[in-house]
Amino acid sequence: MYSSRSSSSSFELSALGWDDSFAALFVEHAAAGLVPARVVRVDRGRCDTLTASGPVRADSAAVASPDPARSVCTGDWAALRPGQQPELVALLPRRGAITRASSDRTSHQQVLAANVDSVVIAVSLAAPLNAGRVERLLALAWDSGATPVVALTKADVADDPGTALAVVTALAPGVDIVTTSATTGAGLDVLSEVVTGTTVLLGPSGAGKSTLANALLGREHMGTSEVRAGDGKGRHTTVHRELLPLPGGGVLIDTPGLRGIGLQDAADGVELVFSEIEAYARDCTFRDCEHRSEPGCAVQEAVVDGRLDVGRLDRYRKLLRESERAAARGNARESSKGSRTKKAITRDLRATYRFRDRQR
């Protein structure tokens, strides 16, 4: 079992997220003389990593993949071959990953961060609240297996933070919500207590992610910029995903602002976000009820008597449809890939038989 070494530039691997389960997966790699490395940042063909002996920049061509869902990503644990030209030779199985539908609208998934324990969703109180975006980010977080936390940022410039807190509480059942201000320091100690292990920051540009990251890190590491007064939007001050050790242990992954948040095969996450709708649905007369005009629909009854907002029901349906369609595209791609493989094998066999026949 691999253990960290002590030196002036070393890291305790446990502070980076290493534990017994990862160590058990690494046994064969250790026997081959490889060392564990946590991926900090991914460039084209190379990665910045952290190892027990310190930072290492390594070649990552061996762990690249044409499928974005399988290629190396910030947060991955990898087996590194040390030496004059360090190289990542294998990725450990992921415990979970933050994924979204690829921005090119293909059936592929894009992995934003791997092996995440907590997801902090930054929601600016200085901009109009976008309920649909909050729900999408929550579904993304829940579906990864991580624990979401909503950080209401910029409370020092908010007109009515109490009202916003009530609205977000209704959007995020069972989720910790912390009202913060990086300017005054309010709520930052509470936020530090509720996030654990590997934490990723998600949210749109202008939500205050970089400012929040600097506050959690205790230093000015991320660049920040002003946002437009009209709509609260800002420039992308974070242009890449990067993993950074936190002062009290654990690591933080900051991400660029997300313009598009496409869901792919995230039905479990959607159901957790809209848990009250799922609870009402259990009382519907028909098990396959679509919650529209069916007799005995408990969901529609909740809408009629004011327990459920019709807008939230519409957003629930939309996210489920989007997730299911993306999953179907992914299944179709895998099926097509399998079909192409079978056809290639058949062609090769036929060519072999023709060659054999000519030799007789």
Automatic annotation (TrEMBL):
Oligomeric state and interaction partners are given as: Monomer. Associates with 30S ribosomal subunit, binds 16S rRNA.
Q: Which family does it belong to?
A: Belongs to the TRAFAC class YlqF/YawG GTPase family. RsgA subfamily.
Residues that, per the record, bind GTP: T153, K154, A155, D156, G203, P204, S205, G206, A207, G208, K209, S210, T211
User: Ranges for the EngC GTPase domain?
Assistant: 114-259
Task: Please give the name of this protein.
Answer: Small ribosomal subunit biogenesis GTPase RsgA
* Comp. bias regions, Basic and acidic residues: 325-337, 345-360
Q: Tell me where in or outside the cell this protein is found.
A: Cytoplasm
